[in-house]
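User: Can you model how calcium ion sits in this protein?
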Amino acid sequence: MKPVRDEMNEFKKTDEITMLLTNRSLPIRDGGQFRFLPPVSNGLKKVIAIWTILLISAAFVTAKEKEAKAAQEPNATVMQKQAAEKAKLPLEKTIELGNEVNMAVVFIPAGEFDMGSSMDEPKRDDDEAQHHIKLTKAFYIGKFEVTQLQYRVIMSENPSKFGGDKLPVDNVNWYEAARFLKKLSDKMGMKFRLPTEAEWEYACRAGTKTAFNTGTTIDSDVANYDATEPYADGIIGKYLKRTTEVGSYPPNAFGLYDMHGNVWEWCSDIYDEDYYKVTPLTDPKGPQEGKSKVMRGGAWYENAYKCRSADRNHRWPKTNESIIGFRVVLEIE
Ligand SMILES: [Ca+2]
Ligand SMILES: [Ca+2]
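Assistant: Here's the modeled complex, given as structure tokens:
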């Protein structure tokens, strides 16, 4: 006689399915003895069958959805994720500034892009001649504009004209921004600085070549600017006449907020309207001499064309205005 275990296995191989289908009862082991379960009813079999089909379909749909989502993800998002993974660096970092105040920065991969605007872009300026730029180093950049709360925690003061912890710091001049970045770097033991003009535009575009990272036009549902004048084939929208809390509008493909509008953002570069004609094509850092500093992205007070990815603006560095703030870059060692 065969051992009980073998008999049981053999039984399963040959008869289990037949028994299920013919409504016969199944044997189970119970303390070394076999006993028979009551037959599985037709109703229960139907329920099991339906659940099985549902589970298989759900798994299939989830896999298909994942596939579709990956296909829909902009190339910039995919490239960003892959580059961060390859560098073994987090896609996003949270910097603890103290007093339970945090600052989020996002990984931006090294890469190439066309800086400036194409000749057919409506309302472009002459200082935006398109040229191909290579950025050889990945970096982190502020997910949001620096807020008033973040500024106050580091500087113990707040120069803003508009009041609110989550509003971007405004009315901050270039030297004050530089002092904030120096203090922040010393406190954290990391190297924070302003973005170069090229880094800023590369981060803003996130792979797009259009006037805005939202497409060929923009509207007041996706950015804070003076939308009382339409741009290109765009529509007339709202003019809020003030800054909005950072992150109130959708992010670009790199996951950055308010790259168009809210406050202008200081860059490290000196401004020169002819700089694009003589710029090094790798990691440009701006001209050596000049009176004003670059600011980018437009603001709550500006019409759409001044919020374009390629638009260049500038101010004397001691300028304090309620339309100007900044965003940090954190260097990767
Ligand atoms: Ca902005
Ligand atoms: Ca301009």
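A couple of observations from the model: The domain at 75-331 is CATH 3.90.1580.10 (paralog of FGE (formylglycine-generating enzyme)). Residues 145, 258-259, 261-263, 265, 297 surround calcium ion (ligand 1) (CB under 6 Å).
User: Helpful, thanks.
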